[in-house]
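Appendix B. One record, verbatim.
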Amino acid sequence: MNLVSGVKIIIPSQVTGVVLLSVGLWWKFMLGPYMLLISSGPSNVPYLLTGTGGFIVLFGLFGCFATCRGRPWMLKLFAVSLSLVFMTELVAGISGFVFRHEIKGTFLMTYSDAVMRYDGRDDRSLAVDGVQRRLRCCGVHNYTSWLSSVYFPLSGIPASCCVNFSDCSGADLKNATLAAHKVYKQGCYELVMSFMDGNVGIIAGVTFGIAFSQLIGMFLACCLSRFINANQYEMV
């Protein structure tokens, strides 16, 4: 068997591995601070994605080696590993889709708690500021979410809610009537949820597409293994 055959077999798995590895690293380093607003505890998702992606990439090289060496048992082991990865990804995708409403509930609870306990200094508070600036939103449902927070009696609504910082003084933010004209109107929870609902089809399609790409590698590995066995039988 030559190197070209090996490359053809590992391409589907390598692409999947690189995608999962990239998403895991992006999640860890870019979305890490915001995970405090999605989960009540530390999230292992980025580590799981990175580990799975790294495993697929390394085992893809094993598949290429097995092809070049012409070892059917190695190709079968490669196919079995891809089937395990496929089932894991499929279960994870289905679970995320089925329990998406529970995910929404968890996000609402943790984000509301972060707003209520906001102090402008801890990690969750900084994450809230980051969300409000980037998404141009304010509070959970709207700016009035801040009126019952522990932060409002002391400092008013956070400056991260301001539409225009040059026209948004501390005195304005402490006055709910004036602040209503200075801050973003839309709540962050509705904005995030509308994005999820509007793109759930795309997210599901990409997830299942990545999972089913493993089937191509499994099929090619099994076919090549049978081909090698047939040739060896004919030679005997």
